[in-house]
Batch of 4 targets.
Target 1
Amino acid sequence: MTPIYPGSVNAAGQQATLGVLGGGQLGRMFVHAAQRLGYFTAVLEPDAQSPAGLVSHHHIQTGYDDPAGLAQLAQLCQAITTEFENVPAQALQTLAQTRPVAPGGAVVGIAQNRIEEKAHFAACADVSGVTCAPYAVLETPAQVRAVQDERAELLPGILKTARLGYDGKGQVRVRTAADLAAAWAELGGVACVLEKMLPLTAECSVLVARGWDGQVVSFAPQRNVHVNGILAVTHAYEGNMPPALATRAREAAVAIAQHLGYVGVLCVEFFVVDDGTEHGGLVVNEMAPRPHNSGHYTIDACDASQFDLQVHAMAGLPLPQPRQHSAAIMLNLLGDVWFDASGQLREPDWHSVLSLPGTHLHLYGKVQARAGRKMGHLTITGPDVVRVKAVAHRAADLLGLPGLDAI
Ligand code: ATP
Ligand code: MG
């Protein structure tokens, strides 16, 4: 991979341009990072008013698998990445015929299918040192019926569609075999995995960036708190989890990325489970082949963000080890924040929030607030965790955010 330097002009007279499939908030923050370095950017996204399309030099407004749109993206860009969980892996493979694409369609395809993803985790368990929750693949009515007799230990469990799930969607919690049959029907009888419900004491995730040449860097694990299956709070500071577990999670995530031959930014999510040991056991949950909501704090708290590393990795630039310079807590801002207790639309009290020290507001340019919709996030940085927590509490109070007890 010949590096694509920002500000350079190629033999065809084109400005160095980086492309992204998908126009959501992750694409927007990628575009910001690429532009700050001096790249031109192109976004392929069908929605006319997308967070990333609105801030990019070029916006190709077609479907993700539209041949003409993909050809135009390849023509404009010297390298291409993705930001969207469910972008067709085939589209990435098509682009890869003519341009460097990171991550590649094959690994994105694995991450998009829980069955393949779990098989990958199992295949590299020896090197990563972690396994996933006990599970069964359910693709036929006979397999669903067999759980009661053959895999009863998986109940109570969580039934998850193999494909197209996110933010807790495509998941049903089941206690009994009857629940399971009903839930499988409710999910449309599609391929699923049934996972044993584990006694979680915490959740964390690790961001890894890997270059074309195999160079790997990673961030320390961040501890995540979910509310209703959606990330609510990320804790990113020294002491956010037991150091021994943090080291294991970080090493496991790097091993998983290496085993995949991954290029780009990968987020690996872990459960910490109560297994009777002092700090609990580590179980790998899932991976996202892109920057992740739990890594947004890196924009304001580190000397290189997850989006900077995404740019560096895809463009073949060096990957220096990032350094976190501030303690940080990130609060996700869902559309709920824009409604008062009686369901009336309201403007959040930004004036008070922005008067607090160390607050960094990121809104994604989404016009319409809806309950559960990710509208933005607020990162609070400071010199130490005590001060960061105090401001996070105050900000969460002002915005009426849930999950406060967990801060
Ligand atoms: P994401 O938004 O991260 O893509 P998702 O919809 O893909 O989420 P998961 O990460 O599989 O879903 O699950 C969402 C949340 O549900 C987890 O973060 C965890 O809190 C809970 N959960 C999932 N699986 C289990 C399990 N086996 N045992 C206990 N809790 C679980
Ligand atoms: Mg998840």
Note: The two ends are 43 Å apart (CA to CA).
Target 2
Amino acid sequence: MVNQELYQLGSTPAYIRRLFAYGLQQAAIVGPDKVFDFSIGNPSVPAPKKVNESIHRIVDEVDSIKLHGYSMAAGHDGNRKAVADDLCRRFGVDVKPSELFFTCGAAPAIVSTIKALTVDNRSEIMAIAPFFPDYRPFVTANGARFVPVKADTETFQIDVSAVEEHLSANTQAIIVNSPNNPTGVVYTREILQELAELLDRKGKEYGHPIYVIADEPYRELVYDGVTVPFIPGIYRNTIVCYSYSKSLSLPGERIGYVYVPGFADDGAAVYAAIAGAARISGHVCPPTLMQMVIERCAEERPDLAAYDENRQLLYNSLTEMGYTCIKPHGAFYLFVKAPNGDAIAFSEKARLEHNLLVVPSDAFECPGFFRASYCVSNDMIRRALPAFRAMIESYR
Ligand code: PLP
């Protein structure tokens, strides 16, 4: 006997993974230059030079026992201090090293936070659709109720009145992901302020805080001079789940953190419960080497030029062909209307007729669109344009 929900999750790979695997398989058959894979969000820009230099230095300089040993569960002191200092400098919020808990990336950070805030099986965790597909199983497999709420599908900003309609006395938290996967939209300060006022008011009415879980792996991936508001500076009951997977192009190294502000309601208790949740999930002591790298590279930022060039090329080309799409200001995704509204049919046709791999937005619980990840080579985008054109023309 095994847990049926987990069995289903483990035996049915996520849509994006299936497309990605198909792309690799096809590349071996027809040649990599004939497959146009826009499926997965694997960074295509190398990690900053200082990251690799630091790895070499650390391996040469640090005592091997220490380097490969366990760290404290919450992370090395030096690492936590370097990141706290960087956040204080950038966002003018008094972040203390003791408020940071290091994790193996954003996913375990979110899972531990959800676990910490799930009081019983009536607890509800909300997310704004479209959203990162694993939010749903993160919540339900943990025994809480998952409550999706549609974004405003013109702007893909949070629809605050829709959030209000779905709030209940059991709402423990709302997951807010900005810059957003899959839309590339950055939530505005005004919308976040509106959300903060709502959550504050409803929290008082229900007699307990409603937390924002700010999932921020794309925080530094922004274009056109747009800034990403630091949500704890707007709403005190915000728990930040951060990752270096995208910002420093280190998804395979599994490093990130949770930040629980000391000024959040019950902040110390939430932090302790997150530490407990990490413990029972077996997610403690992220790689020591990577923690040491982050200590040296906390101020490093990604080189956005290549992503920006891809963004402009794909957005301008697709809209010129007649596709409809909101211009993304962050992350590395384009969220495009499927020509006749059936995104699954569009994605299947593109795959079978052109080896063009795009993700139907049903995977993000917001049908009618497809996501194209532009963290790919500029050359592949150029070579894929005739396939995108043939696809839209086939619908005319
Ligand atoms: N949250 C979002 C919105 C993501 O897009 C991803 C990865 O693509 C994650 C979380 C998981 O990130 P990590 O690799 O740090 O676990």
Note: The chain has a mean pLDDT of 96.
Target 3
Amino acid sequence: MEYNFSAIEKKWRLWWKQNKTYKVEEDESKEKYYVMDMFPYPSGSGLHVGHPLGYIASDIYARYKRLRGFNVLHPMGYDSFGLPAEQYAIETGQHPQITTSKNIKRYREQLDKLGFSFDWSREIRTSDVSYYKWTQWIFKQLFNSYYCNMADKALPISELIAEFEIRGNSMVNSPCDEDTLVFNSAEWRSWSDEKKQIVLLKYRLAFLSDTWVNWCDGLGTVLANDEVKDGFSERGGFPVTQRKMKQWSLRITAYADRLLDGLDHIDWSDSLKEIQKNWIGRSSGVRLGFFTEKGGNCIEVFTTRPDTIYGVSFLVLAPEHNLIEQVVSDNFRVSVNKYCKGILKKSDIERQSNTKNVTGVFTGSYAIHPFTKKKIPIWISEYVLAAYGTGAIMAVPCGDQRDWDFAVKFGLDIPNVFENTDVNSGANVGLSLTIINSDFLNNLTVPDAISKAVKVIEKRGLGHSKINYRMKDAVFGRQRYWGEPFPVFYKEGVPYLVETEQHVELPKVDKYLPTKEGDPPLARASKNDWNVFRGDRMEYSTMPGWAGSSWYFLRYMDPKNETKFVSKSKVDYWGQVDLYIGGSEHAVGHLLYSRFWTKFLYDRGFISFSEPFKKLINQGMILGRSSFVYRIKGSNTFVSFDKIKDYSVTRMHVDINLVNNDILDIAKFKCWRAEFSQAEFILNNKNQYLCGFEIEKMSKSKYNTQVPDDLIEQYGADTLRMYEMFLGPLEQYKPWDVKGINGVSNFLRKFWRLSHDKNNKFVVSEVEPTDREYRVLHKCIKKITVDLERFSFNTVVSHLMIAVNEFTAIGCNKRKVISELTILLSPYSPHLSEEIWFKLGMKASVCDAIWPVFNEKYLMEDLVAYPVSFNGKKRFVLEFPINTPSKDVESMALSHSKTKQYLLGRSVKRVIVVPNKIVNIVC
Ligand code: ANZ
């Protein structure tokens, strides 16, 4: 074989390994560049061709930056704690560690075959003790910190304790639990250590509290909001309901504003920033108290529209509201309980999306309107969410659609506060409206009325302005086995950290299921199963999947450090990730949490930057081309796609490996599954079974996955790498279709043949390239450089193809051309490039070559000299770029000053332009 890719690829992979080509160290003499991929969760099914798309792009960029003289950090690791390994453990009894190691091995083999320039000496696995003991260490720092609004940063909890000792908490301006009471220093000092700990928990950034959580019975654990999609668990698709539980949370809301502001300083796509902004959901409004007729606690509501206060005709509480007990009058207790119980089974999403069927129940009680002093009824409804604002609203039917629907359904008052609004047709609010019927707000526009209302409410002590966030504190505990254990133990119900230097290892358990009492699997471990056992018991929850991934980019810088999570000098050198490539499914979860942890570590002085990922690119998904067969309903007979209209059929996915050019291999199909061994077929006129197809997400369940292994075998990794880039712009969703792979494979052969003769002997010419050859080369250098700088990976491939085609046409095998082309090709096809590079006589890897610089001199177009004649007589010569359109040549020739001179006042009758040859002016 002329270009024997499999021998070449094997040879260089070994050479790179032996020569540690991709090992990188800090080097002050060079500028650093950090390229990182979202590390994979090693699932049982291995990589399909969609997975490495981002890795190939980042690898190309890492190699390119290295060639440009940067010291490039390009690491890889595994996000190896997670549910599938645990589910498998539950089913088979096998320790998740075993499944995980097996899967990692398979991933590594697949990744290795693709020729990535990862520095594997820096590999990390989030499930290794050597890694997760540092995740625990960060948790300890969070536990030992509080957020000071005055300093606008996290500070050591010891500073808060010092303040409590001197003044109590009256002067403290810090985010804390809602139920935190005011105390003075004498009270503080009089308390027992337990009591003090309980109070401190209300301020700590990692804290334990009773919270409404998303409970997933199917998985036996709580889930964070971003792990719940439309009321179902993202993994497994089990229903999720609301439950109040004592849970570990992280006080991410303290960082809400900084997480918003930080978005202005990073190079992420607008759509991604928008998703984060919406998730954080900042809204500024007022908290306003309504006394009830009965007395007792007043009902606090959150509103962004205090200007509509005169339009309030009832209050609505969330079914979970803690004042319901107190508010409900006895006659209504039964119906209220029934209603609330029913609603608790629903998820927030279901509740919010239920706009058609308005539901609610009257409490039988009334509140007093703070301005009009009128009695207004208190209702309960599912459309008010417990976890947002105060879990209670003042209803303004003329201003809010849901309130209007509710008022109409239950026959409640609809007072109007807007000029020109028809209360019979529903809400109609716009900023240009004027407030009416509102006493002190009359005749003001909405924005003015809002400011005035806030002032009056605050002045009269009825409430205060408040910024509210849609984002909630992040639930951090999971009732699962295969996650980081907490470095926490309990003494009389109060949580404490294990000693600073100590970490907690996952203990052995007999089963990976909850105990009979409903405690998480870790409760199965006996005292001796723990490497550390303190107090009455250890914490049974484990950390969520996103704990390890929130800081892994830091550990890559210093993966073996045993005394620190990362050394200061290394983190100062490598700094932020310059380019981060990964899937868009992490838009809120991982990307928000890692921004939060980075800001926290920055606040506490451990790192010197507050955003982890400077530039982020989301690679688009690779879609699969699925194939379908059509079974006649209720039979085992399959009809060819072109005949299905005559039958009543059910469509079924069929493995694409049983299909070639949409024709089903019937023999293979019969062997595919036992149930089809006796299948019958109605074929088309060509006596074939034609399959249908559709482009959809590439996934095992759709039998449309293509594993890279087979393609590498058939075409080589270099071709596959280049082909994946050639499919289209990195960010775009694109269908996978192997049809074009031959084209790329042929291109690499063509490149090979430039420097190999008919006998496959390497031959290059030492002759200096011609101007034309330099022009082709430099045009190519320029285009590729510009395109790589703007991350346009697909267009680079076509520039390379154009150049190689032109050199083939010219028959150029000049050393200078071949060596520069080899460097240009090397980020895409590193094995082939390395082979040619060494054949050129080089002694060091092509990775350490110098990226060619284009010379503008060669970028000028070829010029053609046009003799300009007047009535057939040559007078002067003008130069134009080759192939200039005739009409441009004509007009430029006519407007030239010399033309005027030779016309001698005569008028031009006709101009003849022979392209790239002559101009003749007839006058
Ligand atoms: C009176 C009012 C009048 C409201 C009006 C809106 C329009 P954002 O901007 O999303 O923060 N609200 C408050 N807490 C709620 C809860 N727990 N569940 C459901 N709705 C809640 O929305 C704030 C507005 O959403 C608040 O302002 C409140 O209704 C409602 F013409 O109060 B408004």
Note: The first helix runs from residue 5 to 18.
Target 4
Amino acid sequence: MTAQLIKGTDIREEILEEITKEVADIKEKHGQVPGLVTILVGENPASVSYVTLKGKTANRVGFKELQDNQDENISEADLLALIDKYNKDDSIHGILVQLPLPDHIDEKKILNAIDPDKDVDGFHPVNVGRLMIGGSEVKFPPCTPAGIQEMIVRGGVETSGAEVVVVGRSNIVGKPIANMMVQKGPGANSTVTIVHTRTKDLEGHCKRADVLIVAAGVPGLVKPEWIKPGACVIDVGVNRVGEKISEKTGKKVAILRGDVDFDAAKEIAGSITPVPGGVGPMTITMLMRNTLNSLKYQLGLME
Ligand code: NAP
């Protein structure tokens, strides 16, 4: 069997098109566009390239986009004051503070200072609570889990009554996606198991999964014989396993591998996400959707 490929690169294009149309429509009817500010402290190269990509995507879909670069020596008090300024700015609907922050700044204090109604990353405890309650309480689902669920839905995978096994229990992927899949509603209604390093029979749990979501950060952790024939396999892992010269640019680029042995797994699974080009492109895409939704809440277009 060769599995259906669920490609994040294709789904991203579909969703960004939808967002672009909706932004133009809201601009015409209400004279407003979503505003997204990204605060970058210091010059960490990975953060700079991620923030640049966020900015480009925001511009592409017609948002007002601000990149606020701050010196790495900024004090915690000054950073808190900056967040307060954007909390009060009605033209800003989403505030992002790029992590990691320098050691002299308390990351938790900073993230908790963002107005939960502008927390488009969905990491504020209020939004974590809303996600746990589910249904119409949810305002901003965290972006990577939201992207995973979107891929499952757009990939036509049945989740109602399905056995979903999530490998990994991090706050940014494992726990939230498990919580989302167990809720009532479309793309959910599943029976969910979370496994981690203390789990006794990892292979046995994975073998039961109709939908296997792997977010461990261990290249090739999931072996092909752990996969139930016909299952949907979502590989969240992004692992740098070496470097190569890009044919396009002639520059050195990282060789990326997922947490699943893709070549063998695609012969057993019913559907599977590739790495790269799978879950990766979905995170920024869902950030754009959360920012659009933030404006829609403000305008009373969403409840
Ligand atoms: P994390 O915080 O390091 O958590 C990894 C989780 O996997 C932990 O709960 C850990 O268990 C579990 N785990 C690790 N090795 C295991 C093993 N051998 N057997 C069973 N469980 C194991 O990682 P994360 O932030 O969730 O990220 C996971 C992966 O997804 C990484 O490769 C990351 O780069 C990728 N990622 C991709 C995106 C994207 O594509 N947009 C976004 C976020 C993350 P314990 O809790 O017991 O230690």
Note: The chain has a mean pLDDT of 97.
